Amino acid sequence: SQQGEEDPQALSIQEGENATMNCSYKTSINNLQWYRQNSGRGLVHLILIRSNEREKHSGRLRVTLDTSKKSSSLLITASRAADTASYFCATVLLIQGAQKLVFGQGTRLTINP
Amino acid sequence: EAQVTQNPRYLITVTGKKLTVTCSQNMNHEYMSWYRQDPGLGLRQIYYSMNVEVTDKGDVPEGYKVSRKEKRNFPLILESPSPNQTSLYFCASSLGGPQRAQYFGPGTRLTVL
To answer: Which residues contact B17 (CB under 8 A, 6 or more apart)?
Structure first.
């Protein structure tokens, strides 16, 4: 099953710059989640934004949601080397009567010192 | 410390030799799931469990079994592993299902020769 698609697939920026990643999805949603994965390690939940919310902040993270365009963006401000990771959006699909969390392919972010 | 643990973290085995990957969480979460992550294919759900004794198939259940006899444990069983099951496996749990934030284990890297 494919729901969220992140864009770009890879992003490389200088430390201190802002990084923006986008996620598009196909069906209506109750919420959208963003996760971070450091290389080969478990995913870490970052933010959950509900369908009735347009923007949410957590520290240096800002997530927006546009349900009319079926898209979300994750902004990381003042990036640091430790932000180097892959970032995934995830939404819930209703498949054969069951709710299933489906992840996008991810954006690989590299922060250059 | 709230966490999801998986064992083993790394495993190299041979075709046909039954193995079990254990998963345990200490957060009293009802919902648990297993994913596999492969390059180019992203994260795909194998099985999930809404609660004790309630399990259901995800996107790629073939060749896998699970059980949920206790709330905290959700082992993944490969009865007869094959090389196409070589992958990085993650267990995850959440309070209340796929619409909530998922807590991931550190991953199990499995190689089947």
So the answer is: B81
Please state, in angstroms and rounded to a whole number, the distance separating the CA atoms of residues A66 and A110.
26
The H or E element spanning position A57 is strand A55-58
- The C-alpha R_g of chain B, in whole angstroms, comes to 13
CA–CA min distance B42, chain A (Å): 5
- Residue A106 contacts B, CB cutoff 8 Å: yes
Rounded Cα gap, residues B55 and A3, in angstroms: 23
Query: For residue A8, which amino acid is it?
Result: P
Give me the residue from A1, A40, A101 closest to B102, CB to CB: A101
pLDDT digits (tens, 9 = 90+) for A53-105: 999 999 999 999 999 999 999 999 999 999 999 999 999 988 888 888 999 99
Distance from CA of A8 to the nearest CA of B (A): 15
pLDDT digits (tens, 9 = 90+) for A41-56: 999 999 999 999 999 9
